[in-house]
What we know:
Blueprint: H1 9-17, E1 26-29, H2 36-44, E2 49-53, H3 57-64, E3 71-73, H4 80-84, H5 87-92, E4 96-101, E5 113-117, E6 120-124, H6 126-134, E7 138-149, H7 159-168, E8 169-177, E9 189-196, E10 208-209, E11 220-226, H8 231-235, E12 239-246, E13 251-252, E14 255-256, E15 261-263, E16 274-278, E17 289-291, E18 298-299, E19 303-307, H9 311-323, H10 325-329, H11 342-351, E20 354-356
Parallel strand pairs: 1-2, 1-4, 2-3, 4-7, 11-20, 12-18
Antiparallel strand pairs: 5-6, 5-10, 7-9, 8-9, 11-19, 12-15, 13-14, 16-17, 16-19
Amino acid sequence: xxxxxxxxxxxxxxxxxxxxxxxxxxxxxxxxxxxxxxxxxxxxxxxxxxxxxxxxxxxxxxxxxxxxxxxxxxxxxxxxxxxxxxxxxxxxxxxxxxxxxxxxxxxxxxxxxxxxxxxxxxxxxxxxxxxxxxxxxxxxxxxxxxxxxxxxxxxxxxxxxxxxxxxxxxxxxxxxxxxxxxxxxxxxxxxxxxxxxxxxxxxxxxxxxxxxxxxxxxxxxxxxxxxxxxxxxxxxxxxxxxxxxxxxxxxxxxxxxxxxxxxxxxxxxxxxxxxxxxxxxxxxxxxxxxxxxxxxxxxxxxxxxxxxxxxxxxxxxxxxxxxxxxxxxxxxxxxxxxxxxxxxxxxxxxxxxxxxxx
Length: 358
């Protein structure tokens, strides 16, 4: 991912020290990177619940390995369909005591984003779109402490969004930092605290950033399901007539053939429409198939499914994977039978605007 500049300790400390909330139980970072701000939060509030999100799956995978991060996600924060599909995000709406942010400063080409507000559409920088969208996750009196480009508080691009923010939150400039604070980045920065107003309870949840497209593509949404039943168990201890069992050998010429086996359990069951991919074995386009049937199936541990809302989305997902096949097939490795890891698959999907839902 481009536009990644992880938070230096100096700024992380300044952000934590700027918080004025007396009782802190829930802390979130919606552009968490490697979790530096959340780790600093745990140092100050050892018993708080910390939630980290980052659209880059490599970053969210790192968050998952840090015991100081209570929960993590890999949603596109500026896409309400992506966050609405996440149970964790829905649970956090209006509940956060503190949100810490070091949002992306520029985005692709530094373009302004279009944001829906109660006053109509306004444009703003990507950084301020993060602030605006994050407010709805605060409880009354909750605070956002953010590290922003210094220009955000004075530029014409962000003047309208600042007006909208002031309808629901007060903001205070905490301190400014020179253009050498971030390694390999020349941007001057400012630490700002936003405090949600008591009278904003009714209005803030209706505020959303309009869907942002990357590379001119629509976001597609899938649920990733990794098969877990070995063939030998499907043929012996788990054999039964209830659920069709799909192994990689059942995917032939881009179609799911009549199943040869069935099992009596529905562990990680899948329903169509879905795109089926081989997890183990040499990658081949003929092994990338659409399963378009409501009948529940169980996958072998050599197959992965991408469940989709409808057939049209499944066809788009498959077409997008095939259009990047050289890149996709290069993700398979291993000293014996080639295989793809879930982390590599999810990172590929996200980099191609195929978003993940719980």
